[in-house]
Amino acid sequence: MQIFLLGLRYFFIDLIGGVVRFPFWWYTHGLVFVARGGWGWISGYAKSLALNVWVKNLFVPMYGMYDWQSRIISFFMRVAQIIGRAIGVFILIILVVLFLALYVAILPVTVITFIYQFLALYV
């Protein structure tokens, strides 16, 4: 009988403790985990676009043609590529920030909605 009561006690302590600890985990370890994942996603996308390589080779002529027409064409093509790729990274940054804002807001919105629905049952 004592083992049953001990098991029951641990069950309820873990259940209530988990419910109480969940919001703290959500805004500490969970938020750090999601933010690191977003940063990894952004840095991986930026590496796949190789923006630093495009900037480093901005004044190097394409296809090894060193006449002035080729240099001008190469410069403007690379500038267009850099602008387009930077816009892509910027859009991804905006999406990750919006996702982080959604992550922060989802817990209180869920609790408020739950309370609202619970109170609507008894009014």
From TrEMBL:
Keywords: Membrane, Transmembrane, Transmembrane helix. The chain crosses the membrane at residues 7-28, 48-66, 86-119. This is Uncharacterized protein.
